[in-house]
Specification:
The protein is of the alpha+beta class. About 20% of the residues lie in helices and about 55% in strands. The strands form 2 sheets. Strands 3, 4, 5, 6, 7, 8, 9 and 10 form an 8-stranded antiparallel sheet that branches. The protein has a two-stranded antiparallel sheet with strand order 1-2.
Length: about 160
């Protein structure tokens, strides 16, 4: 018989010891695959895309600086992520309660909501869009923008693949 009365295999190793070692190996392998595996580069296709970034709570100075258009870089990775083609803005609005407890929207003085349209060459794969040095681009994600005249960050509002 291989297993003795104490549950040890050959009198030296217990079944519980084997399961513990297997659990540790699976955990280490899972952590390695999760944090150290590179995204698949073979399934990526080069595409031209247009995306809109919404920036809240900025001053008129930043609006005017972004309106000068030009090249946009990712300040973290120091790579080009597109060209500004269109800029639109409106006064920023904030929710407030009136005397009756109803929600009303009031303009915030000297603050604006800016929409910046950027055209870029990037990559498309099953998992999403990438610009620059693999900066992930997805609707709702926050992205940092830097131009010659201003730096800011905002949320990606929409992404459209151009023909």
């Amino acid at each position: 018989m291989i297993i003795d009365k104490n549950g040890k295999i050959g009198g030296k190793v217990s079944i519980i010891d084997i399961f513990a070692v297997l659990i540790i190996i699976v955990a280490v392998l899972g952590i390695f695959l999760r944090f150290y595996s590179a995204p698949s580069r073979s399934a990526r296709e080069r595409v031209k895309m247009m995306y809109v970034v919404e920036i809240d709570g900025i001053r008129k100075y930043t609006v005017d600086a972004m309106d000068k258009k030009g090249t946009v870089i990712d300040p973290k990775q120091k790579c080009v992520i597109g060209e500004i083609t269109e800029v639109s803005y409106k006064p920023q609005k904030m929710e407030q309660f009136d005397a009756d407890g109803n929600v009303v929207y009031a303009e915030v003085p000297n603050r604006y909501t800016l929409e910046v349209t950027i055209v870029s060459e990037g990559k498309e794969s099953e998992s999403g869009y990438y610009v620059g040095n693999d900066t992930v681009l997805s609707v709702g994600s926050t992205i940092s923008l830097a131009t010659k005249y201003a730096n800011s960050s905002g949320k990606v509002k929409s992404i459209e693949k151009l023909q």
